[in-house]
Amino acid sequence: EPVQTKVDKILVPVQPPKPAKSSTPTFGSVSAERVETRVPMNRMRQTIAARLKEAQNVNAMLTTFNEIDMTAAAEIRNKYKDFMLKHHGIKLGYMSAFINASVHALKTQPIVNSVIANNEIVYRSFIDISVAVSSPKGLVVPVIRNVQLMNIIEMERAVSELAEKAKKNQLAVEDMEGGTFTISNGGVFGSMMSTPIINIPQSAILGMHSIKDRPVA
Questions:
Q1: Residue 41 and residue 129: Cα distance in Å, rounded?
Q2: Where would you find the membrane-spanning parts of this chain (predicted)?
Q3: Do 198 and 61 form a contact (C-beta atoms < 8 A)?
Q4: What domains appear along the chain, each with residue ranges and CATH number?
Q5: What is the pLDDT averaged over residues 191-216?
Q6: Are strands 181-185 and 129-131 parallel, antiparallel or unpaired?
Q7: By C-alpha distance, which of 41, 62, 97 is closest to 198?
Q8: Cis bond upstream, residue 215 (ω within 30)
Q9: Which of 140, 179, 159 minimizes the C-alpha distance to 98?
Q10: Residue 129: beta bridge partners?
Q11: What is the pLDDT at residue 12?
């Protein structure tokens, strides 16, 4: 054997055989590529984000937590939900009950339905309820105007119509302007409690959450 060949065998490392490719996927087969995708915020999202951040920056917010007995409301809903669907084409939920209770409370405590403008407190004779509803783009807060003039059926119909518009992405920024009080129903997501952000220039927000069966002493 030539001397050069012997030298090459000593100096050049022997390459180990490559393992056969396995058809079974392994952890190492997952792509290590890390991708960031930037999607511009639409006008609606920009407006909502700016207002919520402004609310955090300029308002001194306080959250209180209370439990209520929903037995009577649940009984009324179960009693009339078929009637509402048959005669009015509306699915009766709990939001109309929350709105109706809020209207009575705001009439009793008009300061909660007011706003602060510079050094003045501005009282309103009307009640415009902002209701948080889900949409393909996230949570939006359209306004039901002059709720103090509505009955339960009209309230439920208004909620249903706004929810349908939100589902179809047909809400405009104008639909979410001018509310005097907001109701957010985190119970639809299974939430037990939260600290919702005030929708400025409003003075308060009501956060409703999960309804649970509990023994009563």
A1: 26
A2: none
A3: yes
A4: 95-208 (3.30.559.10)
A5: 88
A6: parallel
A7: 62
A8: no
A9: 159
A10: 144, 181
A11: 56
Find the farthest-apart pair of alpha carbons in the chain and give their distance in angstroms, rounded.
108
Contact indicator for 165, 157 with CB cutoff of 8 Å: no
3-state secondary structure the chain: CCHHHHHHHHHCCCCCCCCCCCCCCCHHHCCCCCCCCCCCCCHHHHHHHHHHHHHHHHCCCCCCCCCCCCHHHHHHHHHHHHHHHHHHCCCCCCHHHHHHHHHHHHHHCHHHHCEEECCEEECCCCCCEEECEEECCEEECCEECCHHHCCHHHHHHHHHHHHHHHHCCCCCHHHHCCCCEEEEEHHHHCCCCCCCCCCCCCCCEEEECCCCCCCCC
pLDDT in tens, 14-66: 566 666 555 555 555 566 899 999 999 888 788 778 888 888 888 888 899 99
Paired tokens of 39:
């999607």
Residue carrying structure tokens 């007011």: 114
Contact between 59 and 200 under an 8 Å Cβ cutoff? The reply is yes
How far apart are alpha carbons 169 and 162 in whole angstroms? 10
